[in-house]
Amino acid sequence: MAIRHRGPRRLAAALAAALVLGAVPPGLADDPGCVLVKKVFRQNERLGRGVNVLGYDPAWKDWRKARFQEKYFRLIKEAGFNHVRINLHPFRDEALGANHAIAPIWFEMLDRALRQALAARLAVILDLHEFQAMGENPAGNKARFLAVWRQIAEHCREAPDTVFFEILNEPNKKLTPEVWNRLLGEALAIIRRSNPGRTVIVGPTSWNNINDLDKLNLPEEDRNLIVTVHYYSPFPFTHQGAAWAGQHKTGVPWNATESERQAIEKDFDKAQDWSRRHGRPIYLGEFGVYDKAETASRVRWTSFVTRQAEERGWSWAWWQFDGDFVLYDVRQDRWVEPILRALVPSAATKHVPGRSGEKPD
Length: 361
Ligand code: BGC
Prior knowledge:
Helices cover about 40% and strands about 10% of the residues. By secondary structure, it is an alpha/beta fold. The protein has one domain (about 5-345): Glycosidases (TIM Barrel, Alpha-Beta Barrel). α7 (about 175-195) links the parallel β4 (about 165) and β5. It is globular. The two termini are about 35 Å apart. The protein binds beta-D-glucopyranose. The site of beta-D-glucopyranose has 5 residues, from loops.
């Protein structure tokens, strides 16, 4: 699309007006009816409900050692989810050889996961999850970061449009807004060379923080972008007992009091306001509560956050399928039912005795 560069504010206002009124804003005559803006919002609807998978799985070094089994994709679909967000760690998995070439064995696993997820009629996000290395040393890791994207993008250029690319999970620390805005632009340009029509997901700094949305600079002319935020507030509640996050205290409740609910609504309204002003759809790509919180509070928070996202038309993905923040108990081979029901209320009907005949939406 050849939308000319206009002041970001003017373009955003025009897009917002178009979304509200369904009219063609001045200057977007080459995109009648804002087709491209509507299209990316439609892409976000296709994502719908999701779950993070395969992030910390031995499968990436040897798929025969996978904890995540093919049948889980089908179970995820049957439970009422629409997509999986596959967390990729090519640096950590030592998948890169000379000149940052990605090892065939790693691509083999990626292809297996893609094939199986798509066969289960799930959309797939390929999320580059090397946020720690990138946050610590963006300059030192830049070459391999861009090389990885060039290779993944070329490798997946023929994938259907239900495959999405997410440039980087949770840019943080030395990825300041200035550094990140430049780097995301470079990565996007590389992706666009082989994937001009791919829907790409990108989020703000400070670990995809809603409060950093205003610092995110996206190329105005690229309307095929979904913007992602992550949500773990209040942090002492969602990460209680998570030593790696410096949260040692446990027994922190979340009671859905008016002030607790309002705090979440306020944050989400802020993101929604940004989304309207910029004409970009929102994807809540991670939210979750660590397993050490008591179940009733986890369920209350999860259910509230999920409904708040859905009321605003956002897509979302739970953190995560197994490992920690567990949604599926791999050892016992069954869903963590209270969390599943909080996320997808209609899934409950499949699991409540006597109502097993009902299908989720
Ligand atoms: C990280 C996980 C962490 C989770 C919740 C994810 O982005 O990859 O290691 O457990 O966020 O903090």
